[in-house]
Structures are given as C-alpha cells and as structure tokens.
Amino acid sequence: MKKKMDYTTFYERIGRLNGWDFSSLKVTSEGIKWNFYEEVIRCTEPSDLLLDIGTGGGEAVLSIADAALLLVGIDLSRGMIETAQRNLKASGSHSNVRFVHMNAEQLTFPDQFFNVVSSRHCDFCATEVFRVLDDGGVFLTQQVSEHDKYNVKNAFGRGQASDVQPGTLMERYKRELREAGFRDIETHEYNATEYYATPDDLLFLLTHAPIIPGFGEKESDFKRFQQFVEQNRCDKGIRTNSERFMLTARK
Fold first, then answer.
1. DSSP 8-state code for residue 233
2. 221 with 177: CB under 8 angstroms?
3. For the purposes of burial, counting CB atoms within 10 Å of the CB of 219, is it exposed (0-12), middle (13-18) or buried (19 or more)?
4. Each residue of 44-56: b (16+ CB within 10 Å) or e?
C-alpha cells in the first residue's frame, strides 16, 4: 500500500508542476517503430468519440484535437487534470476536448459510449474499457516494458519494475483483454536507443518520471548520477534505452 501511495503523491506533485510534458528534453532516439498517438489517429474517424486514460496534462490529446468529434481525457491525479485544464484554456479553440478527474477502474460513462479508447503509460481496467467501447470499437495502449532504462536502473541498484521478469506486464494485459471479451489482440514491441544531449536533460527525466523511485532522496544518488553520465556519455549524448510495447484490440 505504501508503494502505491508514494506513486500517487509523486503524480500529484509532478502533475501540478509539469503535467506530463517532456517536450523540452533534448533527446534523440534510434529504433522507435511507431508514434502512439499517430496510431490512435489512424484508428479514429472524424465522427468518433475518443477516451484517453491517464491523459496527464492533456498534451497528447490537445495535439490530436482535430482527429475526433469529442475527445475526453481522464486522470486519477487532480494535479494532472488541473494542468490539463490550464493547457486547454491556453490552447484556445478546442471546444471538443474535455478533461475529467476519474478513476480508470470506475469509469462514469454510459455503456458503449466511445468508439476509440487509448491509454499511454497508464494502468487501465480491461472490463471497464470493454464496457464503454461501442461494438467494433478499438482500444490501444502503450506501456513501458520492464527493461526500460536498464543501464540507469543497474547504476542505481533500483528502479521501476526492475525486479519483474521481462514480458510479465504485456502478458498480464493480454490475458485481461482476452478475459474481458476483446478480439483481434495484436502486440508490438521495440527497444530503442536514446541519447540525452546533456546531464540536465537526463536529470529532468529522472526527477519528473518514476524511473528511479525516490530519486534524490539518498545522498549517494547524485554521485551515482555523475558516474552514470561519465560512463555512458558518447558523441551522440548520454546513452540509455527506451523499451515499449503496444497492444491493440477490438470489441
């Protein structure tokens, strides 16, 4: 229970400060096989209703606001939703976008309300997604694989899901989707190489994402960070990896 509460506190704090906006990072990648929200757009018609679970500060939904008739972003973090509301107001004319504080395990939408549901880097409830999707509707989720930022976690001796067997999360979600009634479940994976331009870029990531739980709370963290930078710096930047999987399923 304590671990869950720690993550809740983390997302509330980061949500109010930054939302889920990493656009300022100077980072290049080699080996990325898809852009998740481009895949969402590919499955969406202009007349569709789209639900985005774990929408963060709404950055992604606002970037695809023209793709659907109505886009609703939900997040369990009130801080994230507050930032999303500010971003919506600042964006101007996206009258078809709504942001709502909501628990993904208890969606307060009618049955078969949405044509498309997306969830990026956020947990979801397969039975609830199935319930709110219309017949023939599509669900897409992208998740962080267990070996993401593998060399960073090794350097710190701890990390998010570092003690979990690779593939565990993907198999769990596939099983839950099948049991909920989804069909045509497809899986996609990549393990890309990332190069962060400066130590500050990597430091921003580690302080705004829960890759290393409690990063900065131990006196040794910044010494280990400096050692990591020295050992993994190359001509392209500071090297690590980005490992992701994507599942698509149809009701």
1. E
2. no
3. exposed
4. beeebbbbbbbbb
Q: What is the DSSP string of 111-164?
A: TT-EEEEEEESS---HHHHHHHEEEEEEEEEEEE-TTTTHHHHHHHT--TTTTS
152 pLDDT higher than 50: yes
Element (H, E) at 65: none
In contact, 119 and 97? CB cutoff 8 Å = no
Checking if the pLDDT of 20 tops 90, the result is no
Confidence of residue 162 (pLDDT cuts 50, 70, 90): confident
The model's pTM is: 0.89
The candidate with the shortest Cα–Cα distance to 59, out of 91, 28, 31, is 91
- Residue 216 pLDDT: 83
Residue with tokens 């040794």: 220
Residue 7 vs residues 15, 115, 142: alpha-carbon distances, Å: 12, 30, 19
Enumerate residues 6+ apart whose C-beta is below 8 A from 41. Answer: 64, 67
List phi, psi (to 5°) of 14. -65, -35
Q: How many CA atoms lie within 13 A of 88 on its CB side?
A: 22
